[in-house]
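[Q] Does anyone have a clean structure-token version of this?
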Amino acid sequence: MAAKGQKVGGKGSRSTLSNSSQAKGDPKNKKKVTLEGDDETDEKEGSLAYKVLSEDQCKTLLGQDVVEMQTTLCDIFKLHNYTTDLRDAGVLDYYTGAVWWGKEQGFQPQQLSGFFTVIHTLLDNVKEQHMAMIDNLREFKKMLIGIDPEYQEIKSAGLDFFNTQQAKALTNYVTTCLFQHYKLYELMFTQTQAEEIIGTDLEIETAKPANVPFPPPLDEGVSQEMFASYIATPPPTPEPEQVDKSEGGLAGEVEEEDKAKEELDAKLDTDIFSELTVDDVREVIESVAKGLLDPLQSEIAAKLREKENILISRINKVHKVAEEGSP
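[A] Here you go.
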């Protein structure tokens, strides 16, 4: 039979067996019959490039940094739940790492697309077909056939745009990122992710409604009555009445002053304390004590409340630590 590349009587025709070849029957002397003029469409169909990622997508990814690359792959493969779904997160990380590695290797768009087809197919074998690692290694080996072949008769599996060195680097990468963690990927795609609901209680204290046109002063923290009695500025002193400065008015004023002096002298002559009763003395003492002790009592009460709040907060912390430590 005619070897590949040798004309055998025209395009698309087959050669006939010679008498000598039929007589010998030696399989080593048999040669494969091939057809010339293979269609370019058949070559494109056999190539692994642009099976998963198109040429435009590969060019876009090669021009992006790792963050933009992750966002683009997230949109292409609809992995929008990667922040909460472990499977989406693992797949997105696997794809992003592979594309970034291809960019570091200086792959062209065709090479990047073919490489991505390989890693996508291998991961899909784990995810959808639950293929064992030995079988998946065989599939990977089939895809590497035809890279710089020793014999021209070997048909390429679709990665003939790689050379031998690139194929070795590709193999090392796939071994490191997938096959070394094969059990982990199998567990991720076969086990159900546990859902955890995390809640936070937030307590908000609101201000009390104001029953007066304006609330009590916050700095002092006292009631309106206490504020009006002891803190608020007293009202202004009323102005004295105007006195008639005429002669009659002056005479009357002098007479009133004389009478007032006489009454005062009479009161001074008599013993003032002799007119006081026991109730009057008690009332005077109570009023003086109340005026002196009320501010001091308010200050002491405020300090006691502050210490009480501190002790309550410490007790709550102790209870909280005890509850967290208990099984």
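[Q] Thanks! Anything notable?
[A] Residues 1-43 have pLDDT under 50 and may be disordered.
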